[in-house]
Design a protein that fits this description.
The structure holds 2 protein chains of 2 kinds. Chain A is an all-alpha fold. Chain A is built from 14 helices and no strands. The chains are: A mainly alpha, B alpha/beta.
Chain lengths: ~260, ~230
């Protein structure tokens, strides 16, 4: 029964009041942030060389880490959704580890791993610790968990029967997934990419611990907020935060608009 | 011909034991049984979508028990059609031929022929979300027939349709089966469907299959399904 159809009873009124209060709180937070910095201050901060670099790096690393997260999420989400194997529950739980761990601990895990023999060997090919590769990896580790969750849910909601029919028509399982299921999952793939992208944009703890906060090197937007705050430049921190709010809202709108068109 | 020899299958407490029956070549067989008795499972075993614990599946003179679904040469029409959600009707019907890398002209000609035969030529550029239940089933039938399968497996293809559409589609199924000289196995729990379509009727009950006379399914007035025109 929808609220519109129902008589306005105290029950529905209470629910509407709770939702309204929460929404008002969120809007108040954003307004407070927007009111704190002058347009001139925002313009000056966002036009500075450091923040322009951090913005560009955030865009590049988020896009790269989200693409990598999607490449992982599609097969693993499919495995969890359609596969039936021993240890599935353990794999399912393990994928949540980056979500439930404190962000700093994720960063510390990455830092310690790359001190091991295996980690040092990998770093000979691609440098990660205190490097841009580290920013991508830190964003990927957490974003991938969210992307896998999303893709699993997408495959759970897509019936397997068309895929099976494709197999009777001459496809292997892989061909059936590629030709029939993935095109049907394209909205979900876009959603998984967007969630990983938005999550990567806000990733701070693992990036700080693993990639550091070196200006014009590994500084992404959350790092900029941190650097400006610790330097006592509250207005600059607010300006960068406003940019991140705008980007987050843009992602939300894009998910809705593009999702409907796909 | 479709032949099952001593097929056994089990999941949890549900089991099928020593299922054996033969559908002679070129005949229209109906497999009946109550909902949940394992009819769909048997069809999936014939398709190759499920592997039996023991027994053999023969299609023609070939033992296909261990062959993948793609190699069995079956046409499969599931209950709801299970059309590919992003494909047009044209792409659905041409799918099996494109997989076999047939020339584009041959694919187009086959699609047109089947679409005309099934009365869906005006729907070729539509996607499944713009098709009615009866149209979906016709498209699913065309898709299954495109690569000239030796056998056609139909999983309650009429159950979701209203009365008039059911009669039309039943007549179409029988005509297509005759014209393509295909061996068909149609599962249903409707006696009226069996009476209207079957050359041979099997009943699956308590994990076993037995052949029953077609006359035992004849129309008793409880369901409507006219006698199709061959």
């Amino acid at each position: 029964m929808s609220v519109r159809q129902a008589r306005v009873t105290p029950f529905w009124s209470w629910l509407a009041l709770i939702a309204g209060l929460y929404l008002a709180f969120l809007v108040a937070l954003l307004f407070a942030l927007a009111a704190r910095a002058s347009p001139r201050q925002v313009w000056e901060t966002l036009g500075s060389r450091e923040i322009l670099y951090a913005t560009g790096l955030s865009f590049t690393t988020c896009t790269l880490s989200s693409l990598l997260a999607l490449l992982l999420a599609v097969p693993v989400g499919y495995l969890l959704s359609r596969g039936s194997f021993r240890g599935k529950a353990w794999l399912d739980a393990a994928l949540d580890i980056p979500i439930v761990l404190p962000p700093m601990v994720v960063g510390l895990c990455l830092l310690v791993f790359f001190q091991t023999a295996a980690g040092r060997l990998i770093e000979r090919a691609v440098p990660f610790t205190y490097a841009i590769g580290g920013v991508v990896l830190a964003q990927f580790v957490v974003g991938a968990s969210f992307a896998v969750r999303t893709m699993r849910s997408v495959f759970d909601h897509l019936p397997s029967r068309p895929e099976e029919v494709a197999m009777t028509l001459g496809c292997s399982r892989g061909q059936a997934v590629w030709m029939v299921t993935l095109p049907a999952a394209r909205r979900g793939m876009f959603a998984a990419f967007s969630i990983a992208w938005a999550r990567g944009l806000g990733e701070f703890g693992p990036v700080l611990v693993f990639a550091g906060a070196t200006r014009l090197k590994t500084e992404v937007l959350p790092t900029s907020v941190y650097i400006e705050l610790t330097g006592g430049h509250l207005e600059a921190a607010v300006a960068v935060s406003l940019l991140m709010v705008a980007l987050a809202l843009a992602v939300l709108v894009a998910v809705r608009l593009v999702g409907e068109k796909l | 011909m479709i032949r099952l020899d001593s097929i056994a299958w089990r999941v949890g407490t549900f089991r099928l034991e020593s299922i054996s029956f033969t559908v002679p070549a070129g005949r229209y067989a109906v497999l009946m049984g109550r909902t949940g008795c394992g009819k769909t499972t048997l069809l999936e075993i014939i398709c190759g979508l499920r592997t039996p614990r023991s027994g053999r599946v023969m299609i023609g003179e070939r033992d296909v028990t261990h062959e993948p679904p793609a190699a069995r040469g079956v046409g499969y029409v599931p209950q709801d059609g299970a059309l590919f959600p992003t494909f047009t009707v044209r792409e659905q019907i041409g799918f099996a031929l494109r997989l076999r890398r047939r020339p584009a002209g041959e694919v187009a000609a086959r699609v047109t022929l089947l679409a005309d035969e099934l009365g869906i030529a005006h729907l070729l550029d539509r996607r499944p979300q713009h098709l009615s239940g009866g149209e979906c089933q016709r498209v699913a039938l065309g898709r299954a027939l495109a690569a000239n399968p030796k056998v056609l497996l139909l999983d309650e293809p009429l159950s979701a349709l209203d009365e008039e559409l059911r009669d039309d589609l039943a007549a179409l199924l029988k005509r297509v089966q005759r014209e393509h000289n295909i061996t068909a196995l149609h599962i249903t729990h409707s006696r009226a469907e069996a009476a209207a379509l079957a050359d041979v009727v099997f009943r699956l009950d308590e994990g076993r299959v037995c052949e029953v006379p077609v006359t035992s399914c004849e129309f008793d007035g409880s369901e409507s399904l006219g006698t199709p025109q061959p």
